[in-house]
């Protein structure tokens, strides 16, 4: 059903008739999908599609034309969605970021959408948080691969995080 809804989202139009910028949503599993930068219009459509929350992994002002977190947060709250801000700059991922993401994910009940510039940071932090909270590394890698996301280059780190959770 979610795949059908995802295809529908990319074809929606705004109230003024303009075509929404196509939105690529990559479903990792029934709890998490990831993608690139969203707008306030996308928030409404995510809510209508059944997403219960949003986790933003993109720092404000990373791009001068992006919709800032405060605007996305306001739209999410208007649609009854949980929203969390766990910004991650390119190449600057820390253990605190992983722990903050895991906490944010635990606070959102139901499927959520994680976004950054293109979705890779959102997918990466998801995988690391899954391992940090004791997730099976092979399952993490398989879910990502089945979604077309390659995280196999991180298998060593994922194994360390998973082992430290045990």
What is the strand and helix layout of this fold?
Elements: H1 2-9, E1 25-29, E2 32-35, H2 40-48, E3 53-56, H3 69-78, E4 82-85, H4 95-107, E5 112-115, H5 120-132, H6 137-146, H7 155-165
Parallel strand pairs: 2-5, 3-4, 3-5
Antiparallel strand pairs: 1-2
Helix pairs in contact: 2-3, 4-5, 5-6, 5-7
Overall tally of structural domains: 1
Average of pLDDT: 87
For the biggest sheet, the summary is: 5 strands, mixed
Spatial separation of the terminal alpha carbons: 35 Å
CATH superfamily: Protein tyrosine phosphatase superfamily
Q: Based on the coordinates given, report the CATH architecture.
A: Alpha-Beta Complex
CATH class label: Alpha Beta
CA-based gyration radius: 15 Å
Reading the helices and strands in chain order gives HEEHEHEHEHHH
Which strands sit side by side, in order, in the main sheet? 1-2-5-3-4
Shape: globular
Provide a count of the helices: 7
Structural class: alpha/beta
Instruction: Give the low-pLDDT segments.
Output: 1-20
β-strand number = 5
Task: Name some characteristics of this structure.
single chain, 166 residues, Protein-Tyrosine Phosphatase, Chain A, 5-stranded mixed beta sheet, globular, disordered N terminus
């Amino acid at each position: 059903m979610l795949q059908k809804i995802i295809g529908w989202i990319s074809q929606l139009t705004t109230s003024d008739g303009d075509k929404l910028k196509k939105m690529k949503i990559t479903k990792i599993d029934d709890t998490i999908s990831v993608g690139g930068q969203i707008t306030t219009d996308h928030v409404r459509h995510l809510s209508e599609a059944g997403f219960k929350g949003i986790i933003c992994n993109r720092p404000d002002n990373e791009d001068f034309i992006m919709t800032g977190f405060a605007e996305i947060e306001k739209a999410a709250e208007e649609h009854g969605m949980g929203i969390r801000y766990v910004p991650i700059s390119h190449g600057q991922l820390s253990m605190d970021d992983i722990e903050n993401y895991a906490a944010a994910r635990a606070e959102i009940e139901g499927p959520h959408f994680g976004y950054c510039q293109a979705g890779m940071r959102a997918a990466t932090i998801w995988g690391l948080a899954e391992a940090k909270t004791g997730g099976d590394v092979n399952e993490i890698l398989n879910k990502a691969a089945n979604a077309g996301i390659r995280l196999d280059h991180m298998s060593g780190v994922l194994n360390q995080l998973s082992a430290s959770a045990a």
